[in-house]
Amino acid sequence: MATIGSAAHRSDIVELERLKNLAERDSVKALLDTVIAKSQKLLERAEDSEKQEELKTQERQRIEEARKRREAEMAAQGKVMPQPIGREKAKIQNVYITTGYGWDQSDMSVMLYLTIKDADTLTEDQYKLDVQAQSINFDVYNHNGANYNFKISKLAKEIIPEKCRVKLKKAQIILFLRKKEQGKQWPELRYKSTRDVYNELVRAEEKGELIQFPDDMQSKMKEMFENSDPETRRMMEETYKQARDMKANGGKYDPLAAMAGMGMPGMPGLSDMFGGHSSHTHGPNCSHQH
User: Where on the tree of life does the source sit, at the highest rank (predicted)?
Assistant: First the structure.
């Protein structure tokens, strides 16, 4: 099915407006107003699509011009433009980018910076950005003898897939992710589950570090405790008891004890704090949800 361009939608709107001016019945005018409104939305989508395609064309032209300039510079030096290593010469390596990247943000977007040598020589068919509402997967194919992959299974917040784009620089690739909620700062790049937060607290407690707790930390811990299996609850109980005993015996300040007892002085343990579901048998009348 062929895509209708913005020019065709503009013509449709003009014709519909003309028909509306000729109409006499209010019901007919109302119907035409509805069709005109839908046509306006289709026009906006078509204009946006054409703008994105124009940007892609300009980017392809820029990449090709950069490649030709580099090829000419190397030819002037008596050198030959390096080509990707063919499969017949060497096995392609798979490189998974898990460290060494950077990120930043503005009110509108989150920017990811990936370091890849000679990135500006990539052709459009050598890279692909797959974007979902809260995840990204970026692949580079057969570049200097390697395939590259970078992915985030769950971002901290949602993004707008159709507004995301890729920019190639000499030794860097920038991924622009358009925020769904404009003007709001992301506290983290990746989404942190309750277990992730708990593990961070445990590591901090082992190092004797202080943690600045978010306002909803206690509710998150309560949620995790109530939805955990018996073994995890037992581990949490033991960790809390050790922290409480250390504090009672004049030991160092413990973030887990501070969190568990926050606003609830005198509570003997996590099971009492979170509803008494640490180790008992769950009968048919138990209200605890699994």
Answer: Eukaryota
Q: What percent of the chain has pLDDT over 90?
A: 42
pLDDT of res. 228: 66
In a domain, 157, yes or no: yes
**Within this chain, do residues 174 and 198 fall inside the same structural domain, yes or no?**
no
pLDDT classification of 258: cutoffs 50, 70, 90: very low
Q: What's the one-letter identity of residue 34?
A: T
Count of domains for the chain = 3
Domain that holds residue 129: 93-178
Angle at 288 between CA 282 and CA 289, to 5 degrees: 110
Sorted by sequence, the CB contacts under 8 Å of residue 287 that are 6+ apart come out as: none
Q: Is the pLDDT of residue 2 over 90?
A: no
The number of residues in the chain equals: 290
Rounded to the nearest 10°, the torsion over CA 190, 196, 201, 202 is -140
What pLDDT is stored for residue 137 in this prediction? 96
Name the more confident of 258 and 41.
41
Three-state secondary structure call for residue 274: coil
Mapped onto helix, strand or coil, the DSSP state of residue 229 is coil
Q: Are 211 and 204 contacting, i.e. CB atoms less than 8 angstroms apart?
A: yes
Instruction: Give the domain CATH number at 166.
Output: 2.60.40.790
Task: Tell whether 158 is covered by a domain.
Answer: yes
Tell which of 75, 102, 118 closes a domain: 75
100 and 65 in a single domain? The answer is: no
Which pTM does this prediction carry? 0.45
| pLDDT tens-digit series, residues 75-86 | 888 877 766 555
Task: Say if CB 157 and CB 88 are below 8 A apart.
Answer: no
Residue 278 contacts by C-beta under 8 Å, 6 or more apart in sequence? 230, 233, 234, 237, 269, 270, 271
Backbone angles phi, psi at 48, to 5 degrees: -65, -40
d(CA 52, CA 107): 21
